Amino acid sequence: MSFIAKGCFRQYIINNKGTEQTLQFGVESWWITDYLSFHNQTPSHFYIQAVENSEIIAIEKPVLESLLIQIPKLERYFRIVSQKTFGAAQMRIKFLFTMSAEERYRHFSNLNPEFVQRVPQYMLASYLDFSAEFMSKIRAGKV
């Protein structure tokens, strides 16, 4: 599990067509990991990549478990982080199923303008589940 001290990261998979599909972004003061892999201590099914010059603070599970026992308020902190992460994932799934591609772009841009500036457009397009070419059309107002 890694705390992002500086920079921007993405978590992605490579789909059955060999295309990268961005699942998540993370910036300063966010945590990023494959939560299931971290919890089960198994190999990850995801890739995590720095999008720009970045610094992280990584913590191994045994160290985190020890800290959670020693500092009860830390357990509450991580519970809240987990709840927010899960809630954000639920909302992303909802948006993928209920919004058009253009609506997803506009909604994401309004909520997260910093990502639109910091993240390469092809990564943002894959996160929003459309092609970089379609992203160009949306940005040019041709959709």
How is this fold's topology laid out?
Elements: E1 2-6, E2 8-14, E3 20-27, E4 31-32, H1 35-40, E5 47-50, E6 55-58, H2 61-70, H3 72-98, H4 101-111, H5 113-118, H6 121-127, H7 132-139
Antiparallel strand pairs: 1-4, 1-6, 2-3, 2-5
Helix pairs in contact: 2-3, 6-7
Please tell me about this protein's structure.
This protein is an alpha+beta fold. It has a domain at 1-59: Jelly Rolls (Sandwich). It is built from seven helices and six strands. It has helices spanning 35-40, 61-70, 72-98, 101-111, 113-118, 121-127, 132-139; strands at residues 2-6, 8-14, 20-27, 31-32, 47-50, 55-58. The strands form two sheets. A three-stranded antiparallel beta sheet has the order 4-1-6, with no helix packed on it. A three-stranded antiparallel beta sheet has the order 3-2-5. Helix 2 (61-70) packs across helix 3 (72-98) and helix 6 crosses helix 7 (132-139). The chain is elongated and about 55 Å long. The N and C termini lie far apart (40 Å).
| Oligomerization category of the chains in this entry | single chain
Pick out the low-confidence regions: none
CATH topology of the domain at 1-59: Jelly Rolls
Mean pLDDT: 95
Structural category is alpha+beta
Name the CATH superfamily classification of the domain at 1-59.
Answer: Jelly Rolls
Read across the widest sheet, the strand sequence of neighbours is: 4-1-6
Strand runs, count: 6
Name the shape in a single word. elongated
Number of helices: 7
Strand content: 15-25%
CATH architecture annotation of the domain at 1-59: Sandwich
Share of residues in helices:
40-55%
Biggest sheet architecture: 3 strands, antiparallel
The arrangement of helices and strands along the chain is: EEEEHEEHHHHHH
CATH class category name of the domain at 1-59: Mainly Beta
Radius of gyration: 17 Å
Alpha-carbon distance between the termini? 40 Å
Protein name: Crp/Fnr family transcriptional regulator
InterPro entries: cNMP-bd_dom_sf, RmlC-like_jellyroll
Organism: Flavobacterium salmonis
